[in-house]
């Protein structure tokens, strides 16, 4: 995974955490849910990139 992808995914995760926290603080369930979804999406992107990296390493041998 490139450094740019890692930074982008981490930024998305942190943005999701901020949304979730803001939603909890204000009682806005939709904002909280959006934050959780953003975090899940960032985690999924990380997982896909890790699988790609593992596949590249496997085929380099």
Describe this structure in words.
The chain has 61 residues and is an all-alpha fold. The chain contains 2 helices and no strands. It has helices at 3-26, 29-60. α1 (3-26) packs antiparallel against α2 (29-60). The longest helix is centred in the C-terminal third of the chain and has 32 residues, at 29-60. The two termini are 18 Å apart.
SSE layout:
Blueprint: H1 3-26, H2 29-60
Compact description:
The chain has 61 residues and is an all-alpha fold. The chain has helices at 3-26, 29-60. The two termini are 18 Å apart.
- Provide a count of the helices: 2
Give the percentage of residues in beta strands: under 5%
Derived from helix and strand composition plus strand pairing, the structural class reads mainly alpha
Oligomer: single chain
Would you list the SSEs in sequence order as H and E? HH
- Name the shape in a single word: elongated
Evaluate the radius of gyration: 15 Å
- Poorly predicted runs are none
Features:
single chain; 2 helices; 0% strand
